[in-house]
Design brief:
Length: 95
């Protein structure tokens, strides 16, 4: 089963949060921050503009992005957690 986002939505898979600080302190799951770096898994066709033309999404599958911290809807499919967000909630692409 796959997820096919609609309009300008993007499906991302969050990268695991760091379990250890730079100084070597191991963090419990409750002390870890929610990760903001994610990989784009699926992209919608784009949003319909005022003139009726479709404005394509600027992202592509495989892009590594920084997403807004608490944006989107979390979905679990086949045991894997994904987040569906709007393109506007993607803050940057990591190159």
């Amino acid at each position: 089963m796959t997820i096919k986002p609609l309009a300008d939505r993007v499906v991302i898979k969050l990268v695991e949060a760091e379990e250890k600080t730079k100084s070597g302190i191991i963090l419990t799951a409750t002390a870890q921050e929610k990760p903001q770096i994610a990989e784009v898994v699926a992209v919608g066709p784009g949003k319909t503009g005022d003139d009726g033309a479709i404005v394509p999404v600027a992202l592509k599958v495989g892009d590594r992005v920084i997403a807004a911290k608490y944006a989107g809807t979390e979905v679990k499919l086949d045991g894997v957690e994904y987040t569906i967000i709007s393109e506007k909630d993607v803050l940057a692409v990591i190159e």
